[in-house]
Structure formats: structure tokens, C-alpha cells
Amino acid sequence: MSGTRAAIRYAKAVLALAQDQNAAEAVNNDMSLIANTVNGSKELQDVLSSPVISAEVKKSALLAVFPNTTKNTLDLINTLITNNRLDIIGAVASKYVVIYNESIGNQTATVTTAVELSGDLETKVLQKVKELTGKAVTVKNIVDETILGGFILRVGDIQYDASIANKLNKLKREFTLN
């Protein structure tokens, strides 16, 4: 939990600095790449969190994996090394992307369905969410067969559960209470 709070603080600080220097979009590109790479590589996570591997080796590994980063990103890496928090760089990068998108008015709508969303249905979801929030939205589809059918829509901190599994659970609760 404290790692998450620290990641948010670092992300906000990097965003504020990048906005002051008109480099927020370039830093967002770096952070998006870092978040995807670190969160997708167990080996890189192990290297970054290992107490046996020195900070300089970790830094050289990051610079080898991400050779074309902005000065702000390099400063973040150096700060995390100085504060012995390099293990949370993936979380910092993920939080930065979220905070950056919120700052420019973009949101991600997560739609959980039992099957993959078709292009037509995705377009309808985009229109409905934009109508509800008034913001530009990108749709991320998660396939979860356990919901049986229907969908679960999550935008920011709002969730709408129209899944069959949810409806069955409600019925089950009603019958057990009576």
C-alpha cells in the first residue's frame, strides 16, 4: 500500500515538472513504455527489486532497455535510485500515465465481457461513455468468462455491473434472505 502511495507522489511530481517544461507528452510516451515493459517482464521486476544487485547495475540495465528517454525520465530514475525506491518504477510509470490522461481529459473505460467486444459494440460503448462523462474515452476490453454474459463497465471510480453472474448472485441473496 505504501508503495502505491509513493508511486502516486512520484508520478504527480514528475508530471508537474514535465508540464512546467512542456514535456508532459514526451514523458508520457516514456512512462507508457516503461509501465508496459516492467509490468510485462517478471525478470526485469526481479532485477529491480533484488537487494543483491547494486543500484548502478540496475540503472545500467534500465538505460540499456530504455536508451532514448527524456531528461525528466532519467531524473526520475536517478531520484528513485537515490531514495532506494527503484523497485516501484513500474507503478510510478503506470500512475503517471493515468494522471496524465486525466489531466488532458482522457479516461479509460474498462469493459469486462464474457466474449471479445466486436467493433460495433465497442463504438456504442465509446459513444455512451462519452455521453455520460463528457470526456474522451478509450475502451479496454477484458474477457472474463466467469461473468457468463452481459458486461461490467468501469470508468474512473464508477462501476456498472450488468453481468449475468451478478444478477444470479442477487437472486441467490434474495432467496436466502426470505
From TrEMBL:
<keyword id="KW-0375">Hydrogen ion transport</keyword>
<dbReference type="GO" id="GO:0005886">
    <property type="term" value="C:plasma membrane"/>
</dbReference>
<protein>
    <recommendedName>
        <fullName>ATP synthase subunit delta</fullName>
    </recommendedName>
</protein>
<dbReference type="Pfam" id="PF00213">
    <property type="entry name" value="OSCP"/>
</dbReference>
<dbReference type="GO" id="GO:0045259">
    <property type="term" value="C:proton-transporting ATP synthase complex"/>
</dbReference>
<keyword id="KW-0813">Transport</keyword>
<keyword id="KW-0066">ATP synthesis</keyword>
<comment type="similarity">
    <text>Belongs to the ATPase delta chain family.</text>
</comment>
<keyword id="KW-0139">CF(1)</keyword>
<dbReference type="InterPro" id="IPR000711">
    <property type="entry name" value="ATPase_OSCP/dsu"/>
</dbReference>
<dbReference type="InterPro" id="IPR020781">
    <property type="entry name" value="ATPase_OSCP/d_CS"/>
</dbReference>
<keyword id="KW-0406">Ion transport</keyword>
<comment type="function">
    <text>F(1)F(0) ATP synthase produces ATP from ADP in the presence of a proton or sodium gradient. F-type ATPases consist of two structural domains, F(1) containing the extramembraneous catalytic core and F(0) containing the membrane proton channel, linked together by a central stalk and a peripheral stalk. During catalysis, ATP synthesis in the catalytic domain of F(1) is coupled via a rotary mechanism of the central stalk subunits to proton translocation.</text>
</comment>
<dbReference type="InterPro" id="IPR026015">
    <property type="entry name" value="ATP_synth_OSCP/delta_N_sf"/>
</dbReference>
<keyword id="KW-0472">Membrane</keyword>
<dbReference type="GO" id="GO:0046933">
    <property type="term" value="F:proton-transporting ATP synthase activity, rotational mechanism"/>
</dbReference>
<keyword id="KW-1003">Cell membrane</keyword>
<comment type="function">
    <text>This protein is part of the stalk that links CF(0) to CF(1). It either transmits conformational changes from CF(0) to CF(1) or is implicated in proton conduction.</text>
</comment>
